[in-house]
C-alpha cells in the first residue's frame, strides 16, 4: 500500500463538493492503491457548516478503505498545509444585481488569499485545479499570488467543456465516446470558448470528413459553449455531477497520465500559439509522469483564428479588471 497523500477540497458543502468527495475517497481520482487524507475548507457560516457535518458523516459511513484521514477547517493554512492536490471548488456565486465586475472582485479576494496560503504551506509539487468561476481568471490570481510555486502547479477546469464536446460528437455520429479522440477546447470557460474538431477523429476517420461544417458551426459549437446555462435552465441549479466527474477526470489524468489521449486543461500559457505567457488558457494537453505538455504544431483557419482571438481578448480583459483590485 502506498503512503497516503493529502487532498484539499474547498466548498465541500456545496453541490460539486457532494459529487466529488465520495469519488476521491473511493479511489476514482488517484487509483485503487492510493490512500488519501481529505482536508475540507468551508466558510464559517452555520448553514454551510451544518451541511458539511452531514457530508462528513456520510463519508465516514461509506467506510472507504482508502480514506485514511478526514478533517474540516475554516483556516486556509491548516487546509493547505503539505497538501499534494487541491481542488478549489468554493467560490462566490453571482447574486441578484451583481455585475460581472463585482463577481470578479469578490472572487479575486478569495483566490488571492488561497493562493498566498498555498504558497506558504502546500507541497512544492502540489497540483491545483480551480473549478470555481470564473475559473481561468481565478486560477491566474491564485498562481500570481503564489510566486514561490511553479506556475505549472495551477490549472483551471475546462475538462467539462471537452467532455461535453466529445459527448455531442458521440451523439451525432453514433460512435461511443471512447472512439472519439483529439477534441480540443480553447480559451476561457465561458461562452467565448472555442470547441474545435479540426484535428478530431471518429473511429479513426477525420471528424470534419464525417460531420457537416454547418452542423459544427451552427449547432455543435453553440451547444457546447452554452451547455452550462442550458443545464441551469433545465435543472434550476448548475451542473454538479458532470462538473464533479470532469474534476476527477482532470486530476486523474494529470496525476496518472492520459495514455496519449488529448485532454483539455486550462493552464498558464508558455507562449504556445501566440497566447501571452502566463494567461490561463484552455489548451489540448497530453499528460505523462505527473506533468502535462501542450499539444504543439496545430494549424488554424481564419474562422478558428477569429474565435481564439475573441476568447483571448475576454480573458485579457478579465485579467486587467482583477489587476485593478489586487496588487499583483
Ligand atoms: N469550471 C467549470 O466547468 C464549472 C464551474 N462551476 C463553478 O463551481 C463553483 C461551485 O459550484 P457549486 O458546488 O454548484 O456551488 P455551491 O454554491 O453549491 O457550493 C459552493 C460551496 O463553496 C463554499 N464556499 C464559498 N466560498 C468559499 C471560500 N472562500 N472557502 C471555502 N468554501 C467556500 C460555499 O459555502 C458552498 O458550500 C461555482 O463557482 C460554479 O460556477 C460549476 C460548474 C462547472
Ligand atoms: O455557470 C456555472 O456555474 C456552470 C458552469 O460553469 C458550467 O456548467 O459550465
Automatic annotation (TrEMBL):
Which residues are in the Lactate/malate dehydrogenase N-terminal domain? 5-154
Q: Which SUPFAM superfamilies match?
A: LDH C-terminal domain-like, NAD(P)-binding Rossmann-fold domains
Active site (catalytic residues): 189
Q: Where does NAD(+) bind?
A: 11-17, 107, 114, 131-133
Example of a GO MF term: L-malate dehydrogenase (NAD+) activity
Q: What is its EC number?
A: 1.1.1.37
Q: Name one GO biological process term.
A: malate metabolic process
InterPro entries hit by this protein:
L-lactate/malate_DH (IPR001557), Lactate/malate_DH_C (IPR022383), Lactate/malate_DH_N (IPR001236), Lactate_DH/Glyco_Ohase_4_C (IPR015955), Malate_DH_type2 (IPR010945), NAD(P)-bd_dom_sf (IPR036291)
Q: Which UniProt keywords apply?
A: NAD, Oxidoreductase, Tricarboxylic acid cycle
Q: Which of this chain's residues are annotated to bind substrate? A: 94, 100, 133, 164
Q: Which reaction does it catalyse?
A: (S)-malate + NAD(+) = oxaloacetate + NADH + H(+)
Q: Does the keyword Glycosyltransferase apply?
A: no
Q: One Pfam family of this protein, by short name?
A: Ldh_1_C
* Its job: Catalyzes the reversible oxidation of malate to oxaloacetate.
Give the record's family classification: Belongs to the LDH/MDH superfamily. MDH type 2 family.
Record protein name field = Malate dehydrogenase
This protein's species is Sutterella parvirubra YIT 11816
Q: Which gene encodes it?
A: mdh
Amino acid at each position: 500500500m502506498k503512503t497516503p497523500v493529502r487532498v484539499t477540497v474547498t466548498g465541500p458543502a456545496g453541490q460539486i463538493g457532494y459529487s466529488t468527495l465520495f469519488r476521491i475517497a473511493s479511489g476514482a481520482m488517484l487509483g485503487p492503491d492510493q490512500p488519501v487524507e481529505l482536508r475540507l475548507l468551508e466558510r464559517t457560516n452555520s448553514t454551510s457548516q451544518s451541511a458539511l457535518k452531514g457530508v462528513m458523516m456520510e463519508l465516514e459511513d461509506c467506510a472507504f478503505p482508502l480514506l485514511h484521514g478526514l478533517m474540516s477547517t475554516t483556516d486556509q493554512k491548516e487546509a493547505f498545509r503539505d497538501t499534494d492536490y487541491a481542488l478549489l471548488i468554493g467560490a462566490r456565486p453571482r447574486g441578484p444585481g451583481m455585475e460581472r465586475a463585482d463577481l470578479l472582485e469578490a472572487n479575486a479576494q478569495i483566490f488571492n488569499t488561497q493562493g498566498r496560503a498555498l504558497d506558504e504551506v502546500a507541497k512544492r509539487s502540489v497540483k491545483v485545479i480551480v473549478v470555481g468561476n470564473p475559473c481561468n481568471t481565478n486560477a491566474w490570481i491564485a498562481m500570481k499570488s503564489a510566486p514561490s510555486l511553479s506556475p505549472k502547479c495551477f490549472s483551471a477546469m475546462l475538462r467539462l467543456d471537452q467532455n461535453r464536446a466529445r459527448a455531442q460528437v458521440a451523439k451525432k455520429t453514433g460512435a461511443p465516446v471512447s472512439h472519439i479522440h483529439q477534441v480540443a477546447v480553447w480559451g476561457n470557460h465561458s461562452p467565448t470558448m472555442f470547441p474545435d474538431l479540426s484535428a478530431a477523429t471518429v473511429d479513426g476517420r477525420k471528424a470534419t470528413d464525417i460531420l457537416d461544417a454547418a452542423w459544427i458551426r451552427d449547432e455543435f459549437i453553440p451547444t457546447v459553449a452554452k451547455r452550462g446555462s442550458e443545464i441551469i435552465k433545465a435543472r434550476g441549479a448548475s451542473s454538479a455531477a458532470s462538473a464533479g466527474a470532469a474534476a476527477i477526470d482532470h486530476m486523474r489524468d494529470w496525476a496518472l497520465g492520459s495514455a496519449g489521449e488529448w485532454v483539455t486543461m486550462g493552464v498558464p500559457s508558455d507562449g504556445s500559439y501566440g497566447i501571452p505567457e502566463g494567461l490561463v488558457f484552455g489548451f489540448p494537453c497530453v499528460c505523462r509522469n505527473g506533468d502535462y505538455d501542450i499539444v504543439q504544431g496545430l494549424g488554424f483557419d481564419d474562422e478558428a483564428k477569429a474565435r481564439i482571438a475573441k476568447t483571448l481578448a475576454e480573458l485579457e480583459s478579465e485579467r486587467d479588471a482583477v489587476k485593478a483590485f489586487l496588487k499583483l
